[in-house]
Each structure stands twice: as C-alpha cells, then as structure tokens.
Task: structure prediction
Amino acid sequence: MILDSETHHYLYKRKEKRIMISLRRIYLCLAVVFMFFFAMVVALPLYAQTPTNVVVILKDGKIYNFPLSDVSRIEFSNTQTSSSLSSKATEIKRDGRFIAYADGTVLDTRTNLMWAANDNGSNINWQSAKSYCANYRGGGYTDWRMPTQDELAGLYDASKTQRSGCSSSDNHVATDLIHLTCCCPLASDMRGSEVAYFYFSPGTRRWTSQSDSTNARALPVRFAR
Result:
C-alpha cells in the first residue's frame, strides 16, 4: 500500500506520541524506584541510631540502663523535684552529708541513697529481713530494699561513735541520724548458702547462715531519684 504524505505524517506523529508516553512512564517508574532507594539509604542509618534503652545517671555517677520497652513500667515519684531531694517531707536536721526528714528517712547526699532512720529493732534472720525491707513504706515510698554489703560499708566511719543497744561495743556509724540498735545489719549479698552482713563495731564485712538472727538487723534503703 502506498500512503500519501499526509497519512504518513499522521502515523509518524502518532507513533512519536506513543513513544513519548512510554518514555514518560519509564521515567516515572525510575523516579519512584530512585526515591524508594534514597529513602532507604537515609532512613536505615537513622533507624540504626534510634536508642533502644533509657539511661538514667544518678547523682553518685552510677548508670542505670532501662530497656525502652519498659519505660512505661518505670515508676517516678511525683513528689520529687530533684534527685537530691527526699520528698515533700520537712527537713528536720543535717549532719554533714546526711539530711534527716520528718517522714523517718535520711538522705546520704554523697551516694544519693535514702535510708530508714532506724533499723527493725530486734533480732531477725536474713529472709525475714529481706521481706521487712521490701515491705517497708517509710516516706510513702514502695521501692525499699535490703542494702548491699558495700552500701552498708559506706555508712561506716571509725571516727564516729554510737552506743549499741545489744552489746558493750560501740557502733561506728557515719551519722547519728541513722540509728542502729545493734551491730550487724544484714545485706543482700549471697555466697553459696551464706549471706552477708556488716559489723559496725570493728567495721568488717562478714558472712553467716541465712537462719542466724543473733544481733542481726534489717535496715531498708532505696535510691533517691
């Protein structure tokens, strides 16, 4: 078939239009693919840098790492305005680095540990002492616990003297704002079947059986957030 010039020109333009439409579609597809890969390149490093933990640094420099997924379960007291403050309780006395409050708590500003102002007052075995500390509600707080041996050792000061209520030997507690009725608060540390305590008369770390309650006391502690 022989086409006249007008028909030939029409067909050429139509073919050219189809080619342009196809090219536009190709360019559009390439643009979409390019944007997708660009987004991946930008987003992946940002995702990799997204923190999975919450780090809390207390006044004493200790670092506590909480999983981000557990943030909703972390309890923060709404009665506190600073990690160095006990609560809304009235401050009643200071002794060096220690602050006593009217709610029966004592803050050690050096370690940021809050202590009960008094121990349990009578002989107690390790398991009962642990339960006593966990259920203590001084100052309205619910996160009291048994102290570690190192934390108890931090309360020892050989230059200070405090009369013991259970022996002729004096205790050497860093402040009279924390009163011990006997020499030996129990600690949370364990060594096999033995448990730790701190002997405030000579200032030594010692171990005993879980059932031993002789001269043993429970002294609750918590982190002042």
Remarks:
- The CA atoms of residues 59 and 112 lie 6 Å apart.
- The first helix runs from residue 5 to 48.
